[in-house]
Amino acid sequence: MEEILAIKHLSKSFTIHNLDKHIEALHDISIDINEGEFVGITGKSGSGKSTVFKCIYRTYAPQKGSIWYNSKKFGPLNLAEISERQMIYLRKFEIGYVSQFLSIMPRTTAQEIVKQAVLEMGYVEAYAEQEANDMLEHFELDRELWDCHPSTFSGGEKLRLNIARAMVKRPRLLLLDEPTASLDHASKLKVRELIEQLKSEGTTMLGIFHDIEFMENLCSREYTMRAGKLTAFENLT
User: Fold this and answer.
1) Residue 101 — φ and ψ, nearest 5°?
2) Which phi-psi region, left, alpha or beta, contains residue 36 (left: φ > 0; alpha: ψ -120 to 50)?
3) Dist CA 95 CA 89 (whole Å)
4) What is the structure's pLDDT at 102?
5) What parts of the sequence cross the membrane (predicted)?
6) Per-residue 3-state assignment (H helix, E strand, C coil) for 31-46
7) Does residue 137 have a pLDDT over 90?
8) DSSP structure class, residue 205
């Protein structure tokens, strides 16, 4: 099985100048991930889980270490050092990110948000619209909301839309940051169903979860973050 991601000795810290504080968020994180794996990460709030993902997605720049990603287009790349243009390409075509928060352009409808994700990959309008509709239907987003702006949505509706936008692109690497945080049980099952489908199609995934039951029989491997350090999670019961 070919390696798709190799994080080596990753460290990240933050300085809060007005409080004169220096916070070590990540300490010497190392992990290798093969194509098609689904790696789950648990841990308390503030332990550094999301910081790992933001370093991979280059929202944050790490102080130390490397993040080697085996790109379909470029070959092996250190995400900690690549150009902004390369990173934009990877976000558009290869690496997806689902967070708990929906960030969108003003006056954009729910349907347009998901459809645009397909269009920017080069597909034609008719195909993009059908894919968007299928994804919105899968997550049971009421059709009356499709032409509405998501600012009017509930937290759960926004999260379902955010997941739909990322998953419709079927990225090679998908980062899931608490994708079930504010969802009811039925919606969680819809997320799990799509994760299983993407796994069968070869998508590699890293997921942050508080819901241990959701991870059961889904992950290839599980880890725990404690105070910025990553360790194998030995017991899911």
Assistant:
1) -120, 140
2) left
3) 9
4) 60
5) none
6) EEEECCCEEEEEECCC
7) yes
8) E
Residue 45 has what pLDDT?
A: 85
Tell me the CA end-to-end span of the chain in Å, nearest whole number.
29
Q: What is the DSSP letter of 178?
A: S
Q: What is the sign of the dihedral through the CA atoms of 145, 100, 122 and 199? A: negative
Q: With CA atoms as reference, report the closest residue to 229 among 29, 67, 33.
A: 29
Where would I find the H helices in the chain? 49-56, 84-93, 110-119, 125-138, 155-167, 185-200, 212-215
Q: What kind of fold does domain 35-58+84-232 have according to CATH?
A: Rossmann fold (3.40.50)
DSSP letter at 8 equals E
Per-residue confidence band for 180, with pLDDT thresholds at 50, 70 and 90? confident
Nearest to 185 by CA among 163, 213, 166: 213
pTM: 0.89
The 10 Å Cβ neighbour count of residue 153 is 18
* CA distances (Å), origin 212, targets 30, 62, 173: 23, 29, 22
Assess whether pLDDT exceeds 50 at residue 237: no
- Residue 103's pLDDT is what? 65
Which 8-state DSSP code applies to residue 150? G
How many Cβ atoms are within 10 Å of 84's Cβ, its own excluded?
8
Mean pLDDT of the chain: 89
Residue type at 198?
A: L
